[in-house]
Amino acid sequence: MLWSLVKIVVFVVIVAALTLGASYLLDLEGGVRIAFGAYEYNLTPIKAVIALLLLVAAIWVLGKLVGLLVALLRFINGDETALTRYFDRNRERKGLQALSEGMMALASGEGRLAIAKANKADRYLDRPELTNLLTAQAAELTGDKRKREEAYKRLLTDERTRFVGVRGLMKQKLEEGDTETAMKLAEKAFALKPGHVEVQDTLLRLQAGNQDWQGARATLKAKLRTGALPRDVHKRRDAVLALSEAKTVIDEDSSIEAREAAIEANRLSPDLIPAACFAARAYAEQGKVKYATRVLKKAWETLPHPDLAAAFAALEPDESAEARLKRFRTLTRIQPEHRETRLLLAELNIGAEDFPEARRALGDLAVTAPDARALTIMAAIERGEGSADAIVKGWLTRAVSAPRGPQWTCENCNQVHAEWVPVCENCQAFDTLAWKVPPATEYQTPMSQHMLPLIVGRIDDAVNVPAPADPAPDHTAPETPRRAEPETETSATESVPDAEVLTEEEAAIAPAEAPRFGRK
User: Fold this and answer.
1) Distance (Å, rounded) from C-alpha 100 to C-alpha 114?
2) What are phi and psi of 423, to 5 degrees?
């Protein structure tokens, strides 16, 4: 209503301006004299203006006639589309203008206006690859899934725009959670453009999520060929895929293939800890303990890790605690000051009932960098040396509220995993798990610090009570399970005679964080 009123007012103003201009010209004196040979014309001002407008119109018409004549001559000369192009030129101009306006509307975030301009451009232009693409992107901006899907499907009919249509449908299926269809579309898009980085990454992620390890390795190789992936990163991720393939084969009870895949994974990336553990197990099954030791030793040189220690212990499951401590020198003399090495030595000495040596190996880790594992080992040392129950319970209670220490943590979303997996269970990112201390969260454990004195009295007094010089003969180190020997698993309470029953908090931490290498 308001717009109609504005148009009426503008029309009245224009008519009034023309009327005033005409009356002004009529009141002017003089005129224009045109002499041409023996002819002479005298024009009043109003006639001169009219003549000028007629001359401009005549020139425009003459230009159109000349263009039509040229098109006719080309048609007679054999150009069958000359006349069609002449009459379609105006339509093309309007279509290009609508297309440009639609692109500007799309860039400005006006999705509905862009769709309207795309429809107008489609009426004037015979360029469906442009108008359908503009419609699809505008529908994506407005959230119109039906129109978006229809536009991308129309793009599939043209060879020039087929990849764009497949990629658009793939992204839409991913948004809808239809990963099976998205994977098929990603494979089609990859076949059309093997060097497209986004399609490579999407296909690799979908294949890894679907446990298609062979297909993922082929995609990874294509990324290396096209230069989208550095060679060292390719070796690492190829090892991850080979390891994942080995785990799948193990689940299928194909031991020979599992051994080969595990050894290949370790060969590709010797510093990949899970691959080293799998390769060591494969060599051990073949009776090649020397090769297994070499694999674990090389991995330990890169990063000492409890899984490597567990795999090394599994090589000789029936040895005594003293023999095990001696054999483990192969690892413990490598990076002796590393935290994991010191914790491992403390656990081994606890298993051998050498508690003073275990205390020396642990050093000040329970004070300077306390976590649940270090504090639990300290509790085991105190128990083995015959300390008072309040001291042991004090260390265990502190372990309940202490940080858990390094864990398999996704570097993309910081999700903590109980064991290594190739694909993050939370964000589905590939090869993002790292052995590190997860970032602190705002969550507070129910065992807050001000509740500890209610359980064991004053904690500072408890843990600072000097231990007896001679350990009581009836106290032994807590028998704990080896990670590679679940059949010998015993709880800390069962291995300590005359020990009191643990509280719920102690029971929650002790089995998970107790020393893993018990005595034989």
Assistant:
1) 10
2) -120, 130
63 pLDDT band, cuts 50/70/90, is: confident
CA dist., res. 125 & res. 91, Å (int):
7
Distance, in Å, from the CA atom of 93 to the CA atom of 162, rounded to the nearest integer, reads 27
Q: Model pTM greater than 0.70?
A: no
Q: Residue ranges of the domains in the chain?
A: 230-318
CATH architecture, domain defined by 230-318: Alpha Horseshoe (1.25)
Residues 6+ apart with CB under 8 A from 19: none
**Which of 149, 205, 188 is CA-nearest to residue 428?**
205
Give the chain's radius of gyration (CA, Å): 41
pLDDT band at 83 (very low <50, low <70, confident <90, very high): low
How far apart CA 410 and CA 417 sit, in angstroms, is: 8
Max Cα separation, the chain? Answer: 144
Q: Which of 34-48, 368-382, 443-457 has the weakest average pLDDT?
A: 443-457
Label residue 87 by pLDDT band (50, 70, 90).
low
DSSP assignment letter at 286: T
Q: Alpha carbon of 362 to those of 113, 138, 337, 356, 472: distances in Å?
A: 70, 64, 10, 10, 21
